Write a sequence for this structure.
């Protein structure tokens, strides 16, 4: 491409007949202008072929406004929803997101992070479980964790214990003979472990018959389906003619179980109550809308970005990361009563 | 953080006892080293607290290795799957991805792109339909479109016409009395329009009774459900006792229709055959695994990144974008016969 004379704010102001202050606001706080003004300036930038170069600014101020986001996988729609909501904060905070899906490859994740650091990104949001929070805390930029082990870094988590208790309380209210929680054998230091703890504690302190089933779930739909089919078979022997209340670790697994039951009976027998976790799109799009302990994904994402931006700003004011202990924010879950447990079954 | 002496390749080579060439390969072609060597070097970088600074390199060489990716939404899991596969090419091509979800907001998308340009990103992959390919072609970097209007930019698309024909051929083979295609009233210049054309052409040239139903679908599960419920009601009157073969524009809509039918009957009556499009996870996780015209998402993503990287390299060798006409690559679709049309119904 041929080199052109650089277009300045002056040129844009002259062309649009707006003041230079207005042009500056377009770049730094566009929401403060009317849609019409934004449109006029946007058109002018096209016409004038304006291209800002911020690379010099990166060198001068160390300000890239890039944030790295590391997501473990997309099998659970919770993760794509969190990513969706994180990306949506662009309108509010102006940060751009470099996204990576870890797929549990530690070496690859490390190399990616190191590369991002070389480009002077300003912070990271980590949802993957691959690297320890101790390792994350040693990177020279602020890190915020969402729903993962977070001892040494800031984090935003759902109140998982409350979620487990709410699920048990609903199954109690529905007068289930036995309350069952199905989960993977997850580590105690992962926030989601508190779903197990909350459920068990509620059952114990209320004297409710319960069972915790831990299996190697969450690998693929087909694997999960085979595991849940076995579990259903066990229940036929163990809990014949009893009313079974099942709370599952996430909507994806809850949907898999629901599909198996509907395939068998053609409907959801009143002997079964099913509750998922997350309120991911899967729960609303299930054959019968799934009751679920909803994570407030928009709030989790928004709080995580805000917490990170606050830390980035604090660092620029000269505070080191070591000066303040990690902040852990908690977002309450919301119970949704739908067709599979205690809700109206509207279609 | 206190300033430290910069760690060099020499320091890393001395520490690990590898040659400087090996250290250089770790950064530029890590796959050529054994996993063990990678691990030793990776650990050394931690120990030595190595932080490369590539910002100077951006200024010197204009090489950021950043690519912008613009996705329209995540309601259709096709988009999250394409993103997943694009991000996975990091291992092959080394490019990092700045991701944005457009949500059909033209002004916001423009502003985002302009900002990315100011950071010297090297190319863009666009899946959203918001900006015209003419506008995209005027940006000073290569652009590759996936499954969107692509007259003025390079693109990678599925052979949608073949997909439409394959769906019609399967419904013919299943001896349906009427072949129905449900889609949204999409623009003729969008590749997905060819699904309608391929289906219609096949029906016409084979003298098959068919109907094309175009409705404002793809907004939300609840809206789509209401629209499809109406359509099912019309069929009761119009096609009573006939065998209906339905081909839907995507797996998401096909799943919504399947759920409505199973909710009504408790099973899929032999009067209905259903085929979706995409082979997104939704098709495998449906209550009955959905037959679908599968897009080869991994190939679409890989070809798109490769095409973009080729263009980026060509530009660095001095070729301007205008010199070569846009390249349009076509990836064939693969028909999956599953429980809802012509397949084995295994659970």
């Amino acid at each position: 491409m041929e080199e052109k004379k650089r277009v300045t704010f002056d040129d844009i102001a002259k062309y649009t007949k707006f003041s230079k202050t207005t042009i500056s606001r377009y770049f730094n706080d566009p929401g403060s202008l009317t849609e019409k003004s934004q449109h006029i300036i946007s058109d002018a930038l096209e016409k004038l072929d304006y291209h800002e170069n911020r690379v010099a600014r990166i060198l001068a101020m160390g300000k890239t406004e890039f944030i790295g986001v590391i997501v473990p996988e997309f099998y659970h729609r919770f993760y794509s929803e969190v990513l969706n909501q994180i990306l949506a904060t662009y309108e509010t905070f102006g940060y751009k997101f470099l996204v990576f899906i870890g797929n549990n490859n530690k070496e690859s994740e490390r190399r990616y992070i190191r590369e991002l650091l070389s480009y002077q990104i300003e912070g990271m949001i980590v949802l993957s479980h691959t690297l320890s929070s101790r390792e994350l805390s040693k990177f020279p930029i602020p890190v915020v964790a969402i729903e993962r082990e977070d001892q040494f870094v800031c984090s935003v988590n759902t109140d998982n214990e409350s979620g487990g208790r709410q699920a048990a309380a609903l199954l109690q209210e529905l007068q289930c003979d036995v309350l069952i929680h199905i989960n993977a054998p997850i580590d105690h230091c992962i926030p989601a472990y508190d779903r197990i703890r909350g459920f068990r504690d509620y059952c114990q302190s209320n004297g409710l018959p319960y069972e915790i089933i831990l299996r190697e779930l969450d690998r693929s739909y087909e694997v999960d389906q085979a595991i849940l089919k076995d579990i259903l078979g066990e229940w036929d022997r163990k809990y014949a003619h009893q009313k079974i209340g099942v709370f599952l670790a996430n909507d994806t697994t809850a949907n898999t179980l629901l599909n198996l039951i509907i395939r068998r009976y053609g409907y959801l027998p009143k002997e079964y109550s099913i509750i998922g976790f997350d309120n991911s799109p899967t729960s609303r799009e299930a054959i019968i809308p799934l009751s679920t302990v909803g994570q407030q994904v928009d709030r989790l994402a928004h709080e995580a970005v805000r917490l990170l931006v606050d830390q980035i700003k604090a660092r620029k004011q000269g505070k080191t990361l070591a000066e303040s202990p990690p902040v852990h924010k908690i977002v309450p879950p919301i119970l949704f009563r739908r067709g599979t447990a205690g809700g109206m079954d509207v279609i």
User: Anything to note?
Assistant: Residues 297-316 of chain B form the longest helix (20 residues). DSSP finds 14 helices and twelve strands in chain B. The radius of gyration of chain B is 25 Å.
